[in-house]
Amino acid sequence: MFHTIECTQLDFNDTTFLMSYPLEAPAVMASVATIGVVQPILVTGCPCQGKYRILAGFRRAYAGRAIGLETIHANIYPVEPDHLLSAFLLALYENLAHRAFNDVEKSLILTKLLYRFGCSRDDVIRDFLPLLGLAPHEKVLDTYLSIFTFEEALKAYLATHEVPMTVIELLSTLSAENRNVVFALLSTLKLGINKLKDFLVLLEEIAFRDQQTIADILAEPGIQAIFRHDKYSGPQKADLIRQALRRRRYPQLTTLEAEYHEQLSRLHLPKAVQLATDRFFEDDALTASFRFQTPEQLHTLAKELLRLSEQPELQDLFTLIQG
After folding, report:
1. Each residue of 203-241: pLDDT tens digit?
2. To the nearest 10°, the Cα dihedral for 185, 189, 190, 192?
3. Which residues of 129-142 are buried (b: 16+ CB within 10 A; e: fewer)?
4. For 21, what's the count of Cα atoms within 13 Å in the CB-facing half-sphere?
5. Do 70 and 124 form a contact (C-beta atoms < 8 A)?
6. Domain range 1-99, its CATH number among 2.60.40.1120, 3.40.50.1100, 3.90.1530.10, 3.10.20.740
7. What is the mean pLDDT of residues 165-181?
């Protein structure tokens, strides 16, 4: 049986049991503004001893206050001072019954279990990581705990986008300064996950080799000029920045790649014929591939291959890849 209580009787400053991020949810706000708070929130305490503490339903309660509701439906659950963990678990299961948690919320829950309610790491790994849909491994726990320390803009992004565990792990190893600039890459350029991982590997390798921070690398004039160019789309900027980073990370390889493609263009290959070599130029051979649909096409290609074999540009290509 729910009770109707005044919103002024709720302690909005007590976030002991809060596990929602972000707290302000437009969908919840719109729902409450349209039909009010239909599902009762869960509270504990007694106004005679102070205000009610919210156990579950923070978003509904905050939305109600924001639109000016004077009263709200609530179920009152008695909680003893030395049984706060039980109350937190009640709120956890109540939330799990009707929604999935985002990565930031999982971090918040795990952080509170460890540092607010005194659960052991072993218990959290064994019991709560699987409950949250996570693998029961210590590395997973540490990665999710690190999210709690991330900057607010990055946490807001993680709360609304699906980011693989491997990327979160990489972000957790960065300093706050480096994480901020990497986040700019992620959000501004709309990088896909594979491209982001590629960027991070390049940046970390350059930073380690040249004893620079990632922030310093991305602040260089050439990179910033691409960032600020208003004629390039996000994907175009991403490709150009990646090319610039690859040239810096692999100067000899990228120079060799450019020379290879220039020599290849001089052969004027027919569209049906392709020549390829090892991507790192560790093989001194070329591979030819071609497509045909009729014997006549094969005959034409054979003559074309013979012509190619007699071109001096082909020998130049072999000289290049064979060093």
Report:
1. 989 999 999 999 899 989 999 999 888 888 888 998 999
2. -70
3. bebbebeeeeebbe
4. 23
5. no
6. 3.90.1530.10
7. 86
